[in-house]
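Explain my protein.
***
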Amino acid sequence: MFIRQETEKDFKEIYSLVKTAFETARVSNGKEQDFVNDLRAGKNYIPELALVAEQDNKIIGHIMLTKFYVNTDKDNKFEALLLAPICVMLEYRNEKIGAGLINKSFELAKNMGYTAVFLVGDPNYYYRFGFQQSTNYNIRNIDNVDAKYVMGCELVKDGLKDITGYFSFY
């Protein structure tokens, strides 16, 4: 398996991968593939943090980290990252491809100076990467998403120290 930055020629294959992968996901709204396109077209897209896992010239996994902001209690914005979405083809799951994508994207993000990542996801999966409920960092979501699924992860020690506030996914 090889992990690399996505390119424009990959977009159609990524769209199909995301659509197919989320058809077998435990939680899906069926629009994740369009969400990827929307993120890519937006001002928060970071091409260097949109990665694919490739095997035998076939894309088998995808991850995207985009800019994301926490509104601090001091009326400022703290720039972090949003991990959304990540997917792996069904037949390649449980082979540490998702872990490889997460670890590589985190390494790149740290090297770019980012200190924290947020997501909505399954705590049982994401805790192993250092995620915990964002409320543990005194950061809350205002979208009525169950707090146990809204998580943050410090990419560097104390990356969220002294940051308190809220964010919205919408």
Observations:
- The first helix runs from residue 11 to 23.
- Helices lie at 11-23, 32-41, 97-111, 123-126.
